[in-house]
Design goal:
This protein has helices at residues 15-25, 32-36, 39-45, 70-81, 88-112, 125-153, 165-180, 182-188, 193-203, 206-212; strands at 2-6, 28-31, 59-62, 65-68. It is α+β, with helices and mostly antiparallel strands.
């Protein structure tokens, strides 16, 4: 199967969770907007294309299938890419973990856009500082402690006792948080030895290492999900 991934150009965004799975598995795929421009997405979002109607990117074309929502895409890709265990209970657990991870990603986004995504960060800077403080002090410790427990129950090295797309997504999560909140993550780091080790192991996987060193891996920036605004990080 040769896949088509649709996501906005210029940012990693939620599409990066799907890219990591495709890259790790060595799957053939086209990052369509990077080839044709963002207009390639619009015909699907405007309903011109017949069939399933996505609300927003990312979405994936696999043959005649059009699949949207990050966790839904990864649930579909897991079995053919060998990135999820075979048992139904393990696949459901993987989906559960990915959905929980997506909840945290949404909270990270809302830390810099707490009022509206349509407004510039500068228009909600005061509210963002309050929201980011709660994220750093309350929400991040709660979520990351949960995922640390998940890894412990998974044998210490993997979320599901074997490599899966959840491990790849945890790598992306930790990488994004290290970029956005370096001081806060340094403070929390001693409580997250398994997550930190997982991030290093995933980065060393041959295909992931090659991807990270390639121009296909866009750098984090202040237009994506994970943004570094020093005033939102721990006080110096």
């Amino acid at each position: 199967m040769h896949y088509e991934l649709y996501y906005w150009t210029g940012v990693q965004g939620r599409g990066e969770f799907v890219r990591l799975a495709l890259e790790d598995a060595g799957a053939g795929y086209d990052d369509v907007a990077r080839i044709q421009g963002d207009d390639a997405l619009v015909r699907y979002l405007d309903g011109v294309h017949e069939g399933a109607l996505p609300f927003a990117p990312p979405f994936l074309k696999a043959g005649r299938l059009l699949i949207a929502q990050t966790a839904n895409i990864l649930q579909y890709l897991g079995p053919p890419l060998g990135l999820v265990p075979e048992s139904e209970s393990r696949r459901l657990y993987a989906h559960q973990l990915q959905l929980t991870l997506g909840d945290l990603v949404a909270e990270v986004h809302d830390s810099h856009h707490p009022i509206a995504g349509s407004l510039y960060y500068e228009d909600q800077r005061v509210e963002a500082r309050r929201r980011a403080a709660d994220l750093r002090e309350t929400r991040l410790p709660k979520y990351l402690d949960y995922f640390e427990q998940v890894l412990e129950r998974g044998g210490g090295h993997h979320a599901l006792h074997e490599h899966s797309y959840v491990d790849l997504s945890l790598f992306q999560l930790m990488s994004g948080l290290e970029y956005a909140f370096p001081r806060a993550m340094q403070r929390l780091g001693h409580e997250l030895p398994l997550l930190r080790a997982l991030r290093q192991r995933v980065a060393q996987r041959p295909r992931i290492a090659a991807y990270l060193a390639s121009p296909r891996r866009l750098p984090f920036n202040e237009s994506g999900l994970f943004r570094h605004y020093p005033e939102l990080d721990d006080p110096a």
